[in-house]
């Protein structure tokens, strides 16, 4: 297997990067008035502008040649065809099947998966209708007013992020709460706000063995039983989403209230599956279907658009350029929509759990960096906090700015103020402000020469900091679906180029196994294994002793 660094395209790009490192983004704009048209794509539900990256036409050609050398299109087609491209877990990667609206058979492991997908969608639709209409009753005959979704990681972040993003569209039929942390504080706070007679719990766990989720589910069940519920009525208040029907039944969920998911859906790509049940309950089933529709539109674009006009592919390639050829260590996600406030956290998991790997498909150590540190926050708040670092810090951090033409609510004067800031930031990061301009500005304000010279260096912004801009019309279930799918496919393309197994997560599993071993040792009177290193052993002993005081 040839390393990507051996591809002629990689070598050409390395040379191109040497030239471009000497260039300034703003001069590229001065030289080419058509740069925006050349380096932007109108994709389903959004406009993607990548012109504020340190690239030229030669770079784009090189990146597209890299995609060809890496056989990105073949791999994409293999994913859509249901091949076991998740080779370390020997599974297909078919989250795209969950939103496929074509009506065609979807072959996975020799079987058409469409009937099972539709069965579970209908199952969800029925529950949503029954709960939202008030037909589904709690043990005392009251209708359900609150839904508590218990799950973590892939079984939490997606639905949580989407629920928050679509707040503007929700009615007051139900209130959805999320519990992920095993820190009892979180569940205690939620249980304080809800009533056992009118609360429906969703235990969302693909494996139904995750310690945090099972601990929270047990606490919820004890609270329910103490609050007047009975073993029998548990069935009216607990439903589950899982591949592990046996464990869910043992917990006390009625078999008909277990929503199936499949091992060909990775946790962090699962909000389209029955894991999305809390979204459908909160927003209504039609909104959930719209979300699927938006993702499907992006899937088709990813499948059908030429690579040069393909938004997920170009987003991925520009990311590779910034990471592997310009050497930038991190990448910020900066939404300018309050409703997208959990989007950076969600994408942090999707990108870093998928491509935070350091060996290639053959198990050899990578000789090039893989995913950068992905982080971010609502942009406008970030401006008054960490943007100082983005503008004047010693590292250059490329960033995606995500905004929309219309706000989710119409409060006069606000949306233009928000978007003016977003546009200003990408312009400022690109152009910066040089010493001459700083001097002229200060002089115009009447500052004396000596004082100007004292502070000029501190006010210089070197600019030349790359950004992407993603502009939606408005955050709706449909555009949100497309936005998420855009990033999912970006992750896929980058994983192919880096020759990484993007769909496993052994780095997450290790901690789960070790914690399960340590937990019994924390009980009073239990020995602490001398197999722990001195630090871990001493910390455990300190904790146990301090707990006694
Ligand atoms: C996601 C990961 C991980 C997983 C959680 C929860 O891709 O696999 O975040 O979703 O560990 O796992 P369960 O759904 O099995 O409880």
> Can you tell me the residue ranges where pLDDT is under 50 for at least 5 consecutive residues?
none
Largest sheet: 6 strands, mixed
β-strand number: 13
Number of helices: 23
- CATH-scheme architecture of the largest domain: 3-Layer(aba) Sandwich
| Small molecules bound | glucose-6-phosphate
Average pLDDT works out at 97
How many domains? 3
**Arrangement of strands in the largest sheet:** 1-2-13-12-10-11
Q: The CATH topology of the largest domain is what?
A: Rossmann fold
**What is the name of the CATH class of the largest domain?**
Alpha Beta
What characteristic shape results from the CA principal axes? globular
Computed over alpha carbons, the radius of gyration is 26 Å
Terminal Cα separation, in Å?
A: 59 Å
Beta percentage is 5-15%
The CATH homologous superfamily of the largest domain corresponds to: Glucose-6-phosphate isomerase like protein, domain 1
- Please estimate the helix content: 40-55%
Multimeric organization: single chain
Structural category is alpha/beta
């Amino acid at each position: 297997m040839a390393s990507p660094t051996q591809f002629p395209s990689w070598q050409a790009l390395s040379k191109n990067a040497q030239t471009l490192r000497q260039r300034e983004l703003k001069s590229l704009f001065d030289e080419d008035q058509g740069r925006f048209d050349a380096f932007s794509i109108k994709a389903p539900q959004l406009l993607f502008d990548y012109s504020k990256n340190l690239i030229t036409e030669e770079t784009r050609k090189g990146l597209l040649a890299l995609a060809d050398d890496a056989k990105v299109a073949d791999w994409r087609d293999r994913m859509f065809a249901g091949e076991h491209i998740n080779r370390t877990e020997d599974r297909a990667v078919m989250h795209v099947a969950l939103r496929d609206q074509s009506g065609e058979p979807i072959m996975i492991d020799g079987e058409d998966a469409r009937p099972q997908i539709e069965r579970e969608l209908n199952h969800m639709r029925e529950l949503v209708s029954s709960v939202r209409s008030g037909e589904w009753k709690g043990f005392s005959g009251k209708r359900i007013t609150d839904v508590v979704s218990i799950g973590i990681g892939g079984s939490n972040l997606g639905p949580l992020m989407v629920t928050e993003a679509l707040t503007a569209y929700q009615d007051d039929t139900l209130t959805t709460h999320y519990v992920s942390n095993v820190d009892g504080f979180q569940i205690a706070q939620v249980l304080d706000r809800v009533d056992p007679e009118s609360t429906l719990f969703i235990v969302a766990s693909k494996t139904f063995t995750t310690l945090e989720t099972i601990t929270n589910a047990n606490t919820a069940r004890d609270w329910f039983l103490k609050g007047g519920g009975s073993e029998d009525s548990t069935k009216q208040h607990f439903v589950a989403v899982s591949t592990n029907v046996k464990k869910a039944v043992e917990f006390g969920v009625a078999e008909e209230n277990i929503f199936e998911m499949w091992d060909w859906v990775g946790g962090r790509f699962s909000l389209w599956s029955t894991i999305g049940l809390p979204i459908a309950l909160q927003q209504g089933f039609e909104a959930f279907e719209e979300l699927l529709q938006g993702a499907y539109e992006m899937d088709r674009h990813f499948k059908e658009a030429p690579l040069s006009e393909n938004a997920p592919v170009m987003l991925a390639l520009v990311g590779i350029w910034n990471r592997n050829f310009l050497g930038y260590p991190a990448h910020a996600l900066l939404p300018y929509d309050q409703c997208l406030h959990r989007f950076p956290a969600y994408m942090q998991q999707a990108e870093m759990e998928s491509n935070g790997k350091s060996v290639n498909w053959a198990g050899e150590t990578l000789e090039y960096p893989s995913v950068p540190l992905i982080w971010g926050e609502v942009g406008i708040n970030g401006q008054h906090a960490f943007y100082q670092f983005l503008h004047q810090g010693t590292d250059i951090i490329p960033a995606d700015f995500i905004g929309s033409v219309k706000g989710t609510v119409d409060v006069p004067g606000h949306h233009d103020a928000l978007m003016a800031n977003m546009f200003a930031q990408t312009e400022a990061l690109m152009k910066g402000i040089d010493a001459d301009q700083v001097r002229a500005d200060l002089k115009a304000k009447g500052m004396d020469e000596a004082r100007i010279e004292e502070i000029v260096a501190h006010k210089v912004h070197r600019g030349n900091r790359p950004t992407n801009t993603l502009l939606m019309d408005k955050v709706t279930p449909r555009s949100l679906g497309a936005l998420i799918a855009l990033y999912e496919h970006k992750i896929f393309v980058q994983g192919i180029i880096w020759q990484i197994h993007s769909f496993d997560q052994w780095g997450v599993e290790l901690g789960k196994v070790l914690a399960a071993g340590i937990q019994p040792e924390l009980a009073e009177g239990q020995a602490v294994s001398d197999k722990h290193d001195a630090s871990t052993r001493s910390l455990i002993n300190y904790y146990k002793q301090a707990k006694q005081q």
